[in-house]
Amino acid sequence: MIKLENVDFSYQPQAGGIVPALSGVNLEIKPGEFVVIVGHNGSGKSTLAKHLNVLNKPTSGEVWVNEMNTKAEANLWPIRSYVGMVFQNPDNQIVSTVVEDDVAFGPENLGVDPAKIQKYVDESLEIMHLTDIRDSAPHMLSGGQKQRVAIAGVLAMRCQIIVLDEPTALLDPDSRREVLESLHRINREEKLTVVLITHYMEEAIGADRIVVMDGGKVVLQGTPREVFAQVDKIRALSLDVPMVTQIAADLYARGYDVPPDCLSEEEVVDAICRSL
Amino acid sequence: MPIVVKDLEHTYMEGTPFANKVLYGVNMTVEDGELLGLIGPSRSGKSTLVQYFNGLFIPEKGQVRVDSLDTRENRKNLKALRQKVGLIFQYPEHQLFAETVSKDVGFGPRNLGLDEKEITRRVWHSLEAVGMDPKIYWNRYTFALSGGQKRRVAIAGVLAMQPKVLVLDDPTAGLDPKGREEILSMVKQLHENLRVTIVFISNNMEDVARLAQRVVCLAQGKIVMSGKPIEVFTQVEMLKSMGLGVLPTISIIQKLRDRGLNVPLNTLTVEETVEALIASGVVRRRERQYGTF
Fold it and tell me: Which end of chain A is least crowded, N or C, by CB within 10 Å?
């Protein structure tokens, strides 16, 4: 589990003084949770994510990962093998010329026994439905496949938590769906804790919890239903509400018998049919 | 200045064991002044196709005519073609290289050998056209801009060449909702104010539904659909089979119709759909209250 206590963080560019990127962030992420973090550009969500595996350390406040403080130098590698990270651009994080070698790169660097590496890699490829293309060259794969390779790499390190910073931003709708489905699968079946940063509100619908960031602060959090019901607030933060919820909320606002917090097409359709 | 594509085929790495055919006889026309959305699953050949529009690719098989000139017969005069058709790649902000905004936007016109006065005029107007106030941004460092701003500066750089046709490859990819909104309204403004022909590739069906006058869908290297947005986006089965996803607005109405309700399937945006639901009388005014909303 992860715990952030009163975290402040500032970037210090050479010119122009201190820019606070996070201020007073308190957040707890429980084992097995699927948490989505949303917020417009510059809201601090990537900065926050980088605190979860010590790419950033708080300027003040504490970050605890599995009861290890990220400030202690000795905790660096234990934390990084506990929390894996996947970034936006798959091309920047693939190092090998063969898919299975790439998946093995993480555990090899952790000094895992080679027999075990083989086992971990086989299992990870299986979980991510990549076994068929284990011998392929990563640069010949689609964006969605490449991101699944990156996720398999995290699984092969036997991380307990996976943090993904806009992993679908560069993907087409089909690949996005593919990646999102696999994240829900590893959350459900492998009990991995997932922290997903995204701009796509549709991707937040299936989460256990949504955390909304603005100006380096957590401004709103709750279940998708609780969060998306606050259509006006979400829009004021320059974020979108899923199209389905917009329809329901607009109908509700105009006095019609549809719950304003619908998250799926079926809910809207059912509500309309029920009202007749 | 229409673009006419006839029986166009394209194979990457032809004659090698890695040969990969991506276009299988494409036929299409881009009409003068239209705002055309090009959709299709990944690897359907969208980005390959548009590179034929400004002569980055010259047809080996098939024909591409821009402004009635055959690009194959005008290999020596591609410079003029590239000025007429401005191509903006995915993530154009990666192509910014100059120190300041005005230097970057002025790079193209300067290469044309124009005088400084004309360069300044073009840079000024291009920045205005993309919604970047030249008074504010003229001497700003390009690297200090936000992602959405960088992208608009890159687009201004192409506009400064005064193209008649603007081709944008997925202009909203990777932007947050606000940045996306800015780019979309900018594209709309460019079309309305500068009267340029615009072709834009998009993976976001909501964006296409909002902007495009006509939608062309490419799949497995062929044009499979072409028509008004409403005509294309109501081909639910077809879109699903290509993995393109169906707009929730269309999908909800379709589901209501499947349950026997009489709602017209002719709306794309949330606003239109809400109006249609109300007008067709399938939603009732509420009496009971839901919680604290």
Answer: C
On whether any CB of chain B is under 8 Å from the CB of A169, the answer is yes
Min Cα separation A71/chain B (Å) = 30
- CB-nearest to B248 from A169, A199, A243 is A243
| B240: closest chain A residue by CA | A174
- Going residue by residue through chain B (293 aa), what tens digit of pLDDT does each one get? 799 999 999 999 888 888 889 999 999 999 999 999 999 987 889 999 999 999 999 999 999 999 888 999 888 888 888 889 999 998 898 899 999 999 999 999 999 999 999 999 999 999 999 999 999 999 999 988 877 889 999 999 999 999 999 999 999 887 888 888 889 999 999 999 989 999 999 988 889 999 999 999 999 999 999 999 999 999 999 998 988 889 999 999 999 999 999 999 999 999 999 999 999 998 988 876 555 54
- Nearest 10 degrees: Cα torsion B91, B95, B98, B99: 40
Q: Which of B189, B146, B150, B148 is nearest to B166 (CA)?
A: B189
What amino acid is encoded at A146 in this protein?
Answer: K
- Residue A274's pLDDT is 84
Interface-testing mutation among B38, B170, B274, B289, with chain A (most A C-beta atoms within 10 A)? B274
Domains and CATH numbers, chain A: 2-241 (3.40.50.300)
Tell me the residues of chain B between 14 and 43 that have a Cβ less than 8 Å away from chain A: 41-43
Tell if the CB–CB gap between A272 and B203 is shorter than 8 Å.
no
Provide DSSP, B146-166: -HHHHHHHHHHHHHTT--SEE
Residues 200-229 on B with a CB inside 8 Å of A are 203-206
ipTM above 0.85, yes or no: no
Domains defined along chain B, listed by start? 3-234 (3.40.50.300), 247-293 (no CATH)
**One-letter identity of residue A103:** V
pLDDT of amino acid A143: 84
Looking at residue A13, its pLDDT comes to 54
| Predicted confidence (pLDDT) per residue in A19-66, tens digit | 688 999 999 999 999 999 999 888 899 899 999 999 999 999 999 999
Amino acid of residue A201: M
A111: left (phi over 0), alpha (psi -120 to 50) or beta: left
> Which of A171, A239, A265, A270 would you mutate first to test chain B, the one with the most B CBs within 10 A?
A265
Separation between Cα atoms, residue B245 and residue A244, nearest integer Å: 14
A240 lies within 8 A of chain B by CB: yes
- The partner residue sitting opposite B252, judged by closest CB among A255, A265, A275, is A265
- Partnered with residue A20 across adjacent β-strands are A10
- Both tokens of residue A44? 């601090």
Distance between CA atoms of residues A219 and A254, nearest Å: 27
Q: Which of B148, B173, B274 sits opposite A251 (nearest CB)?
A: B274
CA distance A255 to B211: 30
- Contact call for residues A87 and A93 (beta carbons, < 8 A): yes
